[in-house]
Write a sequence for this structure.
């Protein structure tokens, strides 16, 4: 009986005992949400905030000449080089070595290429041998003439004493005169041989192609192993030149002006040139000459315009738009200083006139400047800013010195 009671008591459920605690799932969910928030904040700091303030930028341009000017005529043309040459060898030969590449700067007299000099060197050796032979012949004739002159003098004395016949003496004199003539011929042969040696040496030098003037290589026309000839192309296997060299200091602009408007153009007239590749860059120039010939087909007259600025960005065959300017005689013609920037780039900060200059790290520098007149949508900056520097156009109020910026699309 007691055993049965004990078994029933073991099977009884204790309802006063507390249930086991549930798993801590909520805590882990909270920690996961916090980690996502922290990662999102870090990503914003890394990729959002560091991108900088979005701004518009412009490049400061040189102010150029002075006085007030208005455009009386616009025309288009191309940049051309007054000094340009396709360099070739003087002789026909196989290219042994080419020492140029496109874009290379070369100086006058610099070696550009070499041809195979085997034939020319053999001609030089032959000319040297011919010169030695002529000199040897000259020496033999000189020795014979010395003996003949001594014999003629001796026979003259014997003939005066009637010891030899007059015929013998005359024969000795004739031998002497013959050798004198042979000596003159031998001397001329030596001079001819010397000239031949000099010409053969020039032939060796002609296998070396040098730059006729300083400039930049714009085209490389030949490769090692090809045949070059200054006479003709010779089909598709013979080149006529080694390369093309251009004197970049001789660049100017040629424009075609309609016959109806050529009367507005005068020599020394100021011009403002704008390259199609750089529409915001105004290049000061002036008219050099008006070519005294008209194109019957196009009814135009060619005008040469000299550029007053030299820059590596200006290359031959670039398209150019030029504006022929008319100066206002009532305005001061003193040269203008400083640079030109969009008027919105010059702002006031704490009572000072400043611009925000963007450096190579895409950070801005708050720079005080001395501003000048406003002309149209541009404003002159007389000091504090150099041509070519990048400025922020319409900087926002929250932009501060040292802030990172990015250019608006």
């Amino acid at each position: 009986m007691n055993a049965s009671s004990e078994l029933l008591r073991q099977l009884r459920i204790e309802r006063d005992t507390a249930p086991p605690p549930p798993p801590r799932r909520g805590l882990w969910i909270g920690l996961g949400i916090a980690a996502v928030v922290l990662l999102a904040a870090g990503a914003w700091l890394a990729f959002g905030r560091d991108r900088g303030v979005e701004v518009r930028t412009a490049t400061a341009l040189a102010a150029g000449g002075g006085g007030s000017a208005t455009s009386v005529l616009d025309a288009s043309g191309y940049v051309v080089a007054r000094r340009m040459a396709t360099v070739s060898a003087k002789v026909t030969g196989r290219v042994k070595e080419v020492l140029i590449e496109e874009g290379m700067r070369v100086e006058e007299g610099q070696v550009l290429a070499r041809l195979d000099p085997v034939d020319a060197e053999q001609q030089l050796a032959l000319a040297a041998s011919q010169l030695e032979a002529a000199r040897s012949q000259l020496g033999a004739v000189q020795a014979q003439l010395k003996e003949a002159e001594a014999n003629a003098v001796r026979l003259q004395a014997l003939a005066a004493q009637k010891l030899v016949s007059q015929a013998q003496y005359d024969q000795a004199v004739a031998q002497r005169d013959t050798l004198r003539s042979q000596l003159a011929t031998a001397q001329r042969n030596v001079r001819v041989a010397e000239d031949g040696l000099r010409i053969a040496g020039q032939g060796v030098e002609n296998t070396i192609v040098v730059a006729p003037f300083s400039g930049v290589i714009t085209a490389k026309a030949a490769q090692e192993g090809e045949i070059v000839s200054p006479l003709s192309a010779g089909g598709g296997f013979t080149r006529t030149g080694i390369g093309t060299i251009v004197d970049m200091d001789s660049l100017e602009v040629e424009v075609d002006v309609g016959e109806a408007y050529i009367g507005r153009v005068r020599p020394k007239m100021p011009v403002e040139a704008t390259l199609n590749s750089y529409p915001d860059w105004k290049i000061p120039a002036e008219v050099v000459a008006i070519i005294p010939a008209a194109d019957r087909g196009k009814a135009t007259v060619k005008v040469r315009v000299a550029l007053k600025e030299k820059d590596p960005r200006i290359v031959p065959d670039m398209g150019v738009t030029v504006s022929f300017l008319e100066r206002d005689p009532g305005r001061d013609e003193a040269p203008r200083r400083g640079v030109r920037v969009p008027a919105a780039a010059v702002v006031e900060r704490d009572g000072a006139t400043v611009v925000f200059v963007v450096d190579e790290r895409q950070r801005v520098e708050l720079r005080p400047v001395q501003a000048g007149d406003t002309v149209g949508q541009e404003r002159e900056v007389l000091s504090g800013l150099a041509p070519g520097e990048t400025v922020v156009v319409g900087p926002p109020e929250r932009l501060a010195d040292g802030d990172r910026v990015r250019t608006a699309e």
The radius of gyration is 46 Å. The longest helix spans residues 118-160. Confidence is low (pLDDT under 50) at residues 329-333.
